Predict the structure.
Amino acid sequence: MTSLYLWFLFGLPALWLLARTMRPVRGRQLLFLAASYAFYLTFGWRFFVILIASSLFNFVWGGVIRRTPTARMLWIGIVANVALLSVFKYLPSLASVFADSTGLAARVAHLALPIGISFWTFQGLSYLFDQYRGEQLDPSLTEFLLYMGFAPTVLSGPICRLPELLPQLRHESRATWENVVAGARSVWVGVLLITLGRLLGGGWNGQGVNWGFDHVSSHLPFGDTWLLLIGYGFQLLFDFAGYTRVVIGIAQAFGILLPENFRRPYLSTTPSVFWTRWHMTLSFWIRDYLFIPLATVRREVWWRNLMLVMSMVVFGLWHKASLLFIVWGTYQGLLLLAHRLTQQWQRRNGVQFSGVMGSVSSWAITFVAINLGWILFRARDWSQAGDLFRSAVNPFASGASVLPVSFVVLVVGIVVAYFLIEGWAERKGESHSLLARLPIELRFACYAGIFYFALFHTAEPQSFIYFQF
């Protein structure tokens, strides 16, 4: 984390000034590539070697697919990428079962996960898919290496696609002060969201969401369970959405627009809408490169429904090789399927749930269903997941409350503020938080208050949640 902060404070301004004075596009590309690689090297040379190997393979194999666009060539590329990802992300979990029996299994079980591998592997795969589909892509080696290892996105996305990024890398115009101002605004909003996530995770004096999950008992009251689940859902949102907003702002300062990753997901009125607003680049990747190709293989309705569920299973596996995440993906897929079947039933019977009450009811059901699913995403094991689920579905669950009053105030206050601010923004059609549009004096007062609590009332510094994926 220290290298991340140093790069942000000192490396970025120097890089911007150098890029500003460099006229040739090729020179700026090489400068960005060198800076991106220098940044990634701070996380370990072994990770860097894996990134280079993946980038070179996908560049070369993309050219092979462009010349010979057959399913066989595409499948070779898919298997190679998935194999590399599996060695570091999934094989250690399997090897840990046998770690006590052989020395090799023990070494495999302790393989470190290269940071960002899930993200840039999917970027490499999207390039192979696009070449197979006949996209007119002809990146140079420098451009492709930069696409795979671009410093703002290499750690935790958003997942980019070459057809969107390549024209920007080739653009002759240089970054302007207007770019810096717009980027800085995005970074400030991101920092605010990250700080809110830290507050939820650490709470006041260490009694936050993380503490709550560490102290969950088998007799947690109904209200405590839902406060914990909702608190974690917002912690996850603020942590990842804030990080993404910072990344988007950094790239924007250099004149490069990255895709959005979150758009007020907790205002969604259906599970389908939620997954077009949450981790959008991954959701759209799964839709475009997995669900649609598989769903169109057969015409039967049951096949499309099965592929919908299986796509979400892959979504869960992308996060972690764990049965909990597989079940989480299955659960999300079943939610989407239930929504689809409900829509079909409504059309057949001419039933519509319109008006304010219909929208509120639909939102409430979606909100409860999504937050219930976070049990599988956050629980440390099946025993804890079972305890939380039993408490969450039983309004009469009783027991000693383990959540302090400060935690309750924190979660309720932040959740209410979120809905007030984002609800206003959605009605107004704004793309940024209301805080970004407040008078500068009031905005900085809000920032100062948040930073005060983050510095003096939260637990030890926390790493970004999605760095583990």
